[in-house]
Write a structure and sequence with these properties.
The complex is a heterotetramer of chains A (about 850), B (about 325), C (about 325) and D (about 190). Chain A is of the alpha/beta class. Chain A is about 25% helix and about 10% strand. Chain A has a domain at about 680-845: Barwin-like endoglucanases. Chain B has about 325 residues and is an alpha+beta fold. Chain B folds into 3 domains: about 5-140 and about 205-275, Alpha-Beta Plaits; about 145-205, Alpha-Beta Plaits (2-Layer Sandwich), CATH 3.30.70; about 290-320. In chain B, about 20% of the residues lie in helices and about 15% in strands. Chain C has a single domain, classed as Formate dehydrogenase/DMSO reductase fold (Up-down Bundle), CATH 1.20.1630.10. The longest helix of chain C has about 30 residues, at about 285-315. Chain D is built from 7 helices and 9 strands, in the order αααβββααββαβββαβ. Chain D has helices at about 1-5, 10-15, 30, 85-90, 90-95, 120-135, 160-175; strands at about 45-50, 55-65, 65-70, 105, 115, 135-140, 145-150, 150-155, 180. In chain D, strands 1-2-3 form a 3-stranded antiparallel sheet. The chains are: A alpha/beta (about 850), B alpha+beta (about 325), C mainly alpha (about 325), D alpha+beta (about 190). Chains in contact: A-B, A-D, B-C, B-D, C-D. The interface between A and B is large, with 63 and 58 residues. Strand 11 of chain A pairs antiparallel with strand 4 of chain D, so a sheet runs across the interface. Chain B: One of its GO terms (biological process) is cellular respiration. Chain B: Keywords: 4Fe-4S, Iron, Iron-sulfur, Membrane, Metal-binding, Repeat, Transmembrane, Transmembrane helix. Chain B: GO terms for molecular function: 4 iron, 4 sulfur cluster binding; metal ion binding.
Chain lengths: ~850, ~325, ~325, ~190
């Protein structure tokens, strides 16, 4: 955190000054470790074992916050009889379809009820939920349909004594029983003594009076089991009563100014604004069927139809009517995954002809960077919008494939447009930060030359396309021509008014006035709202994201600084900060509470303001009304924090340790080596290494340095940052240096089945060998900021990474890979290809390697 | 009434080595880039203060001997101390803390020190546990400033805030201030010829603003304010650290009775000054100036007297040859 | 190093620490029990120097020291020669002083980062700055030396010429000596710590240079004082340098080793040879006088360049900064 | 004459209290008139750091319609006026030499960049989008209506504003594109 979010780390230092203990778990010793009370180096890719060990410790030593667990989690819920755990099936869950590499999740459901997830994969039980007969064969794994015919809802069974063998609590206990300190030591390389210390620190600091927070970043997400890493932390934190309370939580430290906003208002294939799923292709699907399939009976997702209809009204205005299902049919449909990596495959296959890159540099920033470049070389046209000539704009001229002779500039047919982008000082708009805070940045000056904002670009591109297609009667153009696309512009360059766009996102009522809360949204077409969770950001016609009341003039929650979604709440699920009766768990940790009439406190309560703790829903109540006065987790279909996830994940209801796709070790926990449903891509440029290969005996992980930003587009070109970390390097331990004859400041070549890169060597004791599985493991640290362009240069670490994805998030596994390292620079030109081929030969790599389940 | 003397207190125990100070300083003062060189000195690629680096963050990878070795992990090859230039080192040089006592050879302490400074790492080895010291260095704005004293043009002057500033419109690049500084701070910019160093943001503090580095510092490792207040705060901090067992902590440059009369920018360090590249006992060179003049006077008289004697002895021409 | 060693009394790395002449152990132990032997171990930041070495060009600044010495001592010598009826020697040395001081001025200006701003030297009069005082000194001395030479050569205004000669002779020793203060008034260990002897080294060197010049330029019948001066100057220079080296302790090695060592040894040898040659043979042989003079001049230059090189060396190695300061601290503590 | 004399530090040295010439007597006129450019800016514009997601507040100082300084906004409860090295380099990021201000064009099989006007480029891109969209158009897939194009794709960085992302998602979805992706996936 000190390494990548230094300014955020000031709050860790504040906490430390008030007596907090900081534990840093990371393969390398970073600037965070330097300030932590305890640094715990572990093997990259073993966190589920580590966290699972913590869960086991909590359960065996009965360190859970029992009142919280009983009231707010699904610990007591009984799971259906058909469910089989990894304990029963040696590492896999029931419902595994080996042929299609996917799970049928129906057996994971609660007894007597089918619940929908608040997020994640929601289309997987489409047919069960719509009770429709269908013959469509889904293209994507993870959306395969089961044969069961369970009802869409029902009565959830519970056992408050937590003793029923099929209650979540007991399942959890059995599942994590094998995650012992001995096992943690063997899997993670963390000595038992150290691990116990962490267990004690975490549990002693959790409960009524104290809370523990977990902070993570892409070190947890960029794995083939990334979503399950976070799930493990969720289980732990829910057991300890650390969710919804001040000083608790699982905090995603996100790495880009508006990466949170980029998922809230997603430029992601599978989502519509506000985490509404993009519709999948189903036979004659109606809006109602979609809502039934994707929404929830209970909780705020019960109002999905209002959110979606309001979105359709925002986009298609008067053209979205009750008669045409509010233009629901205008939405294009998914058939499986269309993530950025599938897009590259489509480029290589020649079905995707054009590509927009807006502030993104996949030629060095995405896994298997070579595939990205080859994909671009197969395009008809490419538009790159950035500040400088990044690698993604110049690969046709000076990319690595030109050097190896795999591509010749004269043979590349891709037409490339480079359009200079405007900086944040040259445009107005909002960023959503890592704590869901929408903060407005105001335009300071006009952009120079041809530099323009992406708002300008998108608006004017749309305007031009609409003008060119105006008058077309072709049905395919209907959604485009019916689109509400008329924003006020200002200034000499006709910049669209960002605040007008924000107002559309916020939404308006029948009278055209801005809405102030998503609870005002209706499903009858009388309200419009571009992103329901952002509803209220323009309440009263005031740009709430631009609120800047100085911190010194308000309390520590600072509710009047900017605006947090939803409803300006700073801590989600904060109902859980009070006990079931609505009293704070403790005075120290008081946050929101029931004052006898209403919910009140330091923050905006994340609960219906007037719903008393003793409220119990009537039979057959729907949506928010169906939540009781103690159902703190209001977005969940059962109002509970999920220790066990009956839906939403495609790779299991409980996290289990699987080895990374490319691991030098076999899985000590189960005979199932890796996530059985991880997403693999078969391509000659994406060859995988066999697990346990002696040719690739080391583990490498990629990471950031304070001095640079992501793939370097905003840092490698700046002299003041470039001089601080002037070139690509790898970090290794003195022991590995001795083993491989690597010299401090010399060169190293790092090899995987994809390619080899070179890096200067920093031999440092900050990297430490670990004892894993009975042998010494060396890890190679690779900061991934570099590429050949700019002032600070070097090979891109992402050249090494395979495209192998988490099946839930379709995020690549770059945080744990097996590799080889040797002294000296890498071969140049065609010799590099031969060098890598030789490695593949030695490791016996074929197109089948790594494809096994 | 002249304003209070202003200064920096750099508490390295909370420095996270982010280098925001280096960049903020450069942005504010429009300082040129200082070269793109990977040094191998841990994460320090600017090497030290110079004409083009007015704030510099030192990184020291260090072993803190606590006397417990990690079984099964051998450290192959010689491991030199941080005094070793990286080119001669087989690894990022680490060193045992210079003041570590054999008495600290206690079993590895895993209990976190209560809101102490930086921890030592879990990793232990033959030298002890690893810690990573970071410290942002800057011009000390000495009470008795050698650079200022020797400047022949008045380019260097002491401001109303007690700081020492070079006036870029006056400096003629004589270079005298450069070896006069006992800390090696001020330096000549090669293509420019003039001497440059930290101004403690003279232009900013004149309007009541905080110097750029202190303003940016995320963890308040760099604190700016009236020197008296800073000294009091530092004294409090050091007491607290000592109370919780951080016995390494010591102040540097805070003492008005030291060789430079105390620094306007002083530090809390976790090891001996020289580990950070700071002189252990700096003395302003001009402290000895009167004596130097006396010796020079004596020498001049010796010359005069010697020659007078020679000529007296030889007398007029035609005399004794 | 092996794991087994690590369990011993002291951390195993101990033996490898310290690039200084001694071992760290002494000082470490010295914490509790005062070490008997002065400890010369030290640590540093990656071997980086603590202080900044001068950015001066050796040719400019060592040259400036040499020429200043030659000029200053030369003016005294000229006055002496004039007073004792050695007009050719007097004229020659007046000229050489003018040339030397002009040369030194050129060197000084040349070394400035911003030569066009030389005049800024006259913005202030700073008693704390030897360079400031030196500049004002030169401002007075330069015209005096110039007038002395010009009036002597042209024969104009003889009275004024005598005043100028006397003035230059009065200021001359200061010109010859102040450069030692200039060098010593820095944090450069080899200069600063030698501030007591350095002026004597410099004036000795200056006297030797002036005598050398006189031996070369003056007729044999006038060179008796030059020969004596050669002995006086050379003896002073060499003795003072030895004393300084001794007092400097470990820093003294910067004068014995490397480039500085070679220059200082050459200076000693040339001084001795020049002075001896001049004293013994210079009265009889013009050639011997010229050779001796040249040797003395070269010796003087070698001394200046040697001092300069020793200073640079002592600045570039942190040990010369750290170890003496450490010792001082420990002496204070003890 | 008097003015000149008074500007001579030596004169001031002997007139004033600063006899040693180390204090105010040595001050030049430029120094005396020195003012920070944040003090002389025409306006201060409130902004947010564009690097990571901590969301530190920034003050952008503008003089003569140019950004002259960017520093932390002390009012922000997120950052309290502090910035990391990247945030501190925002001025160089936005006004430095690395920024390009011209549209560049590489024609198919071309070996060098060419210049193109922004207007022309926008027009060409619009044509290409229309063409690729039609070429990749699908009404149905395996018998189910999909109403989409696979002809073009987009990948955005996560430094885009919410409003920008909103328009991108809205326009491209209306065009039928589904391969709309973001750094958030990576």
């Amino acid at each position: 955190m000190a390494e990548c979010h230094p300014v955020g780390f000031q709050w860790v230092m504040e906490a430390k000054a008030r007596g907090a203990t900081v534990v840093h778990v990371d393969p390398r010793f970073t600037r965070t470790s330097a300030l932590a009370d305890l640094h715990v180096p572990l093997r990259a890719g073993s966190d589920i074992a580590f966290l699972g060990g913590l869960v086991n410790y909590v359960l065996t030593h009965e360190k859970d916050f029992r009142e919280y667990v009983l009231a707010y989690t699904n610990a007591a819920t009984i799971v259906g009889e058909e469910f089989r755990d990894t304990e029963d099936l040696d590492g896999v869950f029931s419902g595994l379809d080996r042929e299609n590499r996917s799970y049928d999740p129906m057996t994971w459901q609660y007894e007597g009820a089918v619940v929908q997830a608040a997020s994640g994969e929601r289309d997987q039980e489409y047919e069960e939920r719509t009770e429709a007969e269908s013959t469509i064969r889904e293209a994507a794994r993870g959306e395969a349909h089961g044969a069961g015919g369970a009802g869409v809802s029902g009565e959830i069974h519970t056992d408050e004594t937590l003793t029923h063998p099929r209650c979540v609590f007991q399942i959890l206990k059995r599942h994590y029983a094998r995650y012992t300190p001995e096992m943690v030591e063997q899997v993670c390389g963390v000595p038992q003594e150290t691990f116990r210390r962490v267990c004690e620190l975490v549990t002693e600091n959790s409960g009524r009076e104290r809370t523990t927070a977990f902070a993570y970043a892409v070190g947890w997400t960029q794995h083939t089991v990334g979503a399950q890493y976070i799930r493990t932390a969720s289980i732990l934190q829910s057991l300890l009563g650390n969710i919804g309370r001040p000083g608790g939580g699982i905090l995603a430290l996100r790495g880009h100014a508006s990466i949170q906003g980029s998922t809230d208002i997603p430029t992601l294939f599978n989502l519509l604004p506000g985490y509404i799923p993009m519709p999948h292709a189903h036979q004659n699907e109606t809006l109602d069927e979609f809502v039934q399939a994707e929404g929830a009976e209970k909780g705020y997702w019960g109002n999905l139809r209002s959110y979606l209809v309001s979105l359709m009204k925002a986009w298609w205005g008067p053209a979205a009517t009750e008669d045409n299902d509010y233009a629901f049919g205008y939405l294009p449909r998914l058939t499986g995954s269309h993530s950025t990596y599938e897009t590259v495959m489509a480029q290589l296959e020649g079905t995707c002809h054009g590509y927009f890159l807006m502030g993104e540099n996949p030629a060095v920033g995405s896994a298997n960077a070579k595939m990205q470049r080859l994909g671009m070389a197969a395009l008809d046209w490419l538009v790159v919008r950035d500040f400088s000539l990044i690698e993604s704009a110049t690969w046709w001229k000076d990319g690595p494939e030109i050097e190896t002779g795999e591509l010749r500039t004269e043979d590349i047919g891709t037409e490339v447009f480079f359009l200079p982008a405007a900086a944040h000082t040259e445009k107005s708009g909002s960023f959503t930060n890592t704590q869901r805070l929408l903060q407005w940045h105001r335009q300071a000056v006009e952009p120079q030359g041809d530099a323009r904002s992406d708002l300008w670009f998108t608006y004017h591109l749309g305007r031009r396309i609409r003008a060119k297609l105006a008058g077309s009667a072709d049905e395919m153009n209907r959604p485009l021509l019916d689109l509400t696309w008329d924003y006020p512009v200002h200034g000499a360059i006709a910049e669209p008014d960002a605040e007008a766009v924000l107002a559309e996102i916020n939404g308006s009522g029948p009278d055209g006035r801005p809405l102030s809360a998503y609870t005002e949204l209706t499903d009858d077409g009388s309200t419009s709202c571009g992103c329901w969770i952002y509803c209220g950001v323009y309440a009263d016609g005031v740009n709430q994201a631009d609120r800047r009341k100085p911190r010194t003039e308000q309390d520590w929650v600072a509710k009047e600084w900017a605006w947090a979604w939803p409803a300006n709440r700073r801590i989600l699920y904060n109902r859980a900060s009070a006990d079931p009766d609505g009293r704070p768990w403790s005075e120290r940790k008081a946050y929101v509470w029931w004052d006898g009439q209403k919910w009140t406190g330091h923050d905006v309560p994340d609960f219906e303001p007037g719903k008393a703790p003793d409220y119990r829903p009537e039979e057959g109540a729907k949506g928010p009304d169906a939540l009781s006065g103690t159902d703190a987790f209001i977005m969940q279909a059962d109002g509970k924090a999920w220790l066990y996830a009956p839906a939403g994940l495609v790779d299991g209801p409980l996290p289990a340790h699987y080895e990374p796709h490319e691991s030098p070790f076999t899985n000590p926990l189960y005979s199932q080596q890796s996530n059985p449903v991880r997403q693999v891509i078969r391509h000659p440029e994406n060859r995988y290494q066999p697990p346990g290969s002696e040719v690739f005996p080391y583990v490498t992980t990629t990471y950031r340095l304070t001095e640079h930003h992501t793939a370097g587009g905003m840092s490698r070109w700046l002299p003041y940052l470039a001089e601080l970390q002037p070139e690509f390097f790898c970090e290794i331990s003195p022991e590995l240096a001795a083993e491989r004859g690597l010299e401090h400041l010399g060169w190293a070549t790092i090899v995987t089945a994809r390619t080899a890169i070179e890096a200067r060597v920093l031999v440092t004791e900050r990297l430490t060998p670990l004892r894993v599985g009975g042998r010494t493991l060396h890890q190679v640290g690779l900061p991934y900021h570099w590429g050949p362009n700019g002032l600070s240069t070097g090979d891109a670490a992402n050249e090494l990474a395979p495209v192998v994805l988490d099946p839930n998030t379709h995020i690549q596994e770059v945080k744990a890979m097996a590799c080889d390292i040797r002294p000296g620079r890498r071969p140049r030109g065609p010799a590099l290809l031969e060098f890598v081929r030789e490695y593949r030969r030695r490791a016996g790599i074929t197109d089948e390697t790594g494809m096994e389940m | 009434m002249s304003p209070a003397r202003m200064g920096f207190f750099t508490d390295t125990s909370v420095c996270i080595g982010c280098k925001a100070c280096e960049v903020a300083c450069k942005e504010w003062n429009a300082i040129p880039e200082d070269g793109l060189k990977l040094t191998g000195m841990s994460y320090d690629n600017t090497e030290g203060l110079s004409a083009d680096t007015w704030r510099h963050v030192a990184f020291i990878e260090q072993r803190k001997p606590v006397g417990l070795a990690e079984p099964g992990v051998d450290h192959a090859g010689p491991v030199p101390d941080s005094g070793t230039p990286p080119a001669e080192a087989p690894m990022t040089p680490t060193t045992p803390a210079t003041d570590a006592l054999p008495s600290s050879l206690a079993p590895r302490e895993l209990v976190p020190r209560p809101h102490s400074a930086r921890s030592s790492a879990r990793r232990s080895g033959p030298g002890g546990e690893l810690r990573w010291l970071m410290a942002s260095d800057v011009c000390k704005h000495c009470t008795h400033a050698g650079c200022l004293d020797v400047c022949p043009t008045g380019a260097l002057f002491r401001t109303e805030y007690g700081t020492v500033v070079v006036q870029e419109d006056v400096c003629n690049g004589c270079g005298y201030c450069i070896p006069a500084c006992p800390y090696g701070v001020i330096d000549q910019r090669k293509d420019d010829g003039r001497a440059w160093k930290c101004t403690l943001c003279y232009d900013r503090i004149g309007e009541g603003l905080t110097p750029a580095c202190a303003k940016a510092c995320p963890t308040e490792s760099i604190q700016y304010g009236p020197l008296d207040e800073l000294r009091a705060r530092a004294a409090e901090r050091i007491t607290r650290l000592h109370d919780v067992g951080v016995t390494d902590a010591r102040l540097y440059g805070h003492d008005p009775d030291d060789g430079v009369g105390g620094d306007g920018a002083f530090f809390l360090l976790l090891d001996e000054p020289e580990v950070y590249g700071l002189p252990p006992d700096p003395v302003v060179t001009t402290r000895d100036l009167p004596s130097m003049w006396r010796h020079a006077g004596a020498a001049a008289l010796t010359l005069l007297g010697g020659l007078a004697a020679v000529f007296a002895a030889h007398g007029r021409t035609g005399g004794r040859r | 190093m092996t794991g087994s060693e690590a369990g011993g009394e002291l951390p195993g790395r101990e033996a490898l620490v310290g690039k200084g002449p001694g071992r760290r152990k002494g000082r470490r132990g010295g914490r509790g029990e005062r070490a008997m032997v002065p400890d010369a171990t030290f640590t540093s930041y990656y071997g980086k120097p603590i202080i900044n070495a001068p950015v001066w060009e050796p040719l400019d600044i060592a040259g400036y020291f040499f020429l200043g010495g030659l000029a200053g001592a030369g003016s005294v010598f000229a006055a002496g020669a004039q007073l004792t009826g050695r007009p050719r020697t007097a004229r020659a040395l007046k000229i050489s002083s003018l040339v030397a001081i002009s040369g030194s001025l050129v060197a000084l200006v040349h070394d400035l980062g911003r030569p066009a701003r030389f005049a800024n030297m006259l913005r202030v009069i700073k008693p704390t700055s030897p360079m400031s005082l030196g500049t004002w000194l030169l401002t007075a001395y330069g015209p005096a030396a110039g007038a002395a030479a010009v009036l002597d050569v042209t024969g104009l205004f003889p009275r004024l010429g005598r005043v100028a000669t006397a003035g230059a002779a009065t200021l001359g020793p200061a010109v010859a000596a102040y450069t030692a203060v200039l060098a010593a008034d820095t944090a450069v260990p080899a200069w600063h710590e030698g501030y007591r002897e350095l002026p004597f080294v410099f004036v000795g060197s200056a006297a030797a240079a002036a005598s050398g010049m006189a031996l070369i330029a003056a007729p044999a019948e006038e060179n008796a004082p030059a020969r004596s001066t050669a002995v006086f100057g050379a003896a002073l220079e060499v003795t003072a340098a030895k004393l300084m080296e001794h007092r400097l302790g470990m820093i003294g090695e910067t004068y014995r080793t490397g480039r500085a060592g070679r220059l200082m040894r050459a200076a000693t040898a040339l001084s001795a040879a020049g002075a001896a040659g001049a004293a013994l043979l210079g009265g009889r042989s013009r050639t011997a006088a010229v050779l001796g003079g040249a040797a003395l001049l070269t010796a003087s230059a070698c001394t200046r360049f040697g001092v300069f090189a020793a200073g640079m060396r002592s600045a570039e190695d942190p040990k010369y900064t750290v170890v003496p300061q450490r010792r001082r601290l420990e002496a204070d503590a003890g | 004459m008097r003015g000149w004399l008074e500007s001579w530090p030596v004169y001031r040295q002997f007139r004033g209290e600063d006899r040693s010439g180390r204090g105010e007597s040595a001050m030049s006129r430029r120094t005396a008139e020195l003012r920070p450019r944040v003090g002389t800016a025409d306006r201060v514009v409130k902004s947010v750091c564009p690097y990571c997601a901590v969301g530190c507040g920034q003050d952008v100082f503008v003089k003569d319609e140019k950004v002259v300084q960017i520093e932390g906004d002390p009012d922000s409860p997120v950052s309290r006026g502090r910035l990391c090295p990247k945030g501190s380099a925002s001025l160089q990021l936005t006004t430095g030499s690395a920024r390009r201000y011209d549209v560049l064009y590489r024609r198919p099989y071309g070996t060098e960049w060419e210049r193109l006007s922004l207007d022309e480029a926008m027009d060409m891109i619009a044509d290409r989008v229309i063409e690729a969209r039609e070429r990749g158009w699908q009404w149905e897939e395996d018998g189910a209506r999909v109403r989409r194009t696979m002809g073009f794709a987009s990948l955005g960085g996560a430094t885009l504003d919410n409003e920008e992302n909103y328009l991108i998602k809205k326009l491209f979805t209306a065009l039928g594109a589904i391969q709309i992706e973001n750094q958030a996936r990576i």
